[in-house]
C-alpha cells in the first residue's frame, strides 16, 4: 500500500550559497529523519570529496553543521507524495515545495543542484529558467541509481 509521505525540514542557513535539492527522502532517511541516510547512498562520500572534509566519519548533526558552514544547504523538491518503497519512479500524487518562494529568502544563493532526474524535472519546472543563480542537474546518488550504472557498464547493450 502506498502511504502519504512528507519531506523533512530544510537543512539550510540564511547565508546558503549552494542548495542541493533531492526529490523526496527514501524510507531509511525518513525513518531516521536524516538526509541521505541509506548506507549505500553516495551523497556524503561525494560531498566529502568535493569539500575536502571527512564528512563520512562524522555524525549527522556534525555533517549538517560542516556542510552549512561551507554554504551548502539541503532540502527537497517534493513536499509530500504517495509512494510504495523508496524509488522515485514509485512517487505518485506529488505536491511540490514552494521552491521559488524559498530561494528568494536566500540572498547569497549562487547555485541550485538537483540530485537526480526526478528532482531536476520538478525543480526546473518550479524555478524556471530565468534565475539569478545557476541550476544544475546532477546524477542521483541513490543506491538504486548506482546499481543501474554498474549494470549498464557490465552488461552488453
The gist of it:
This protein has 157 residues and is α/β, with parallel strands linked by helices. 34% of the residues lie in helices and 22% in strands. The strands form 2 sheets. A 4-stranded parallel beta sheet has the order 3-2-6-7.
Mean pLDDT: 89
Helix content: 25-40%
User: How much strand?
Assistant: 15-25%
Pick out the low-confidence regions.
147-151
Q: Helix count, per DSSP?
A: 6
Q: Tell how many strands the DSSP assignment holds.
A: 7
Strand order in the sheet with the most strands: 3-2-6-7
- Overall structural class, as computed from helix and strand content, comes to alpha/beta
General description of the model:
It is built from 6 helices and 7 strands, in the order ββαααβββαβαβα. The protein is globular and about 40 Å long. The strands form 2 sheets. A 4-stranded parallel β-sheet has the order 3-2-6-7. Strand 4 and strand 5 form a beta hairpin. With 157 residues, the protein is an alpha/beta fold.
Keywords:
7 strands, 4-stranded parallel sheet, 157 residues, alpha/beta
SSE map:
Blueprint (H helix, E strand, L loop, with lengths): L2 E4 L11 E5 L4 H6 L10 H9 L8 H10 L2 E5 L1 E6 L8 E5 L2 H6 L6 E5 L1 H11 L6 E5 L4 H12 L3
Parallel strand pairs: 2-3, 2-6, 6-7
Antiparallel strand pairs: 1-4, 4-5
Amino acid at each position: 500500500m502506498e502511504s502519504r509521505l512528507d519531506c523533512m525540514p530544510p537543512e539550510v542557513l540564511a547565508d546558503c550559497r549552494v542548495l542541493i535539492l533531492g526529490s523526496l527522502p527514501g524510507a531509511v532517511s525518513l525513518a531516521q529523519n536524516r538526509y541521505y541516510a541509506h548506507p549505500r547512498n553516495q551523497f556524503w562520500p561525494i560531498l566529502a570529496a568535493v569539500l575536502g572534509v571527512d564528512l563520512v566519519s562524522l555524525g549527522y548533526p556534525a555533517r549538517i553543521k560542516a556542510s552549512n558552514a561551507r554554504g551548502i544547504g539541503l532540502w527537497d523538491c517534493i513536499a509530500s507524495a504517495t509512494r510504495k518503497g523508496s524509488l522515485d519512479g514509485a512517487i505518485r500524487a506529488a505536491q511540490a515545495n514552494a521552491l521559488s518562494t524559498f530561494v528568494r529568502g536566500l540572498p547569497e544563493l549562487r547555485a541550485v543542484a538537483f540530485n537526480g532526474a526526478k528532482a531536476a524535472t520538478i525543480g526546473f519546472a518550479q524555478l524556471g529558467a530565468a534565475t539569478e543563480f545557476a541550476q544544475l542537474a546532477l546524477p542521483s546518488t541513490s543506491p538504486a541509481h548506482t546499481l543501474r550504472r554498474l549494470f549498464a557498464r557490465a552488461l552488453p547493450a
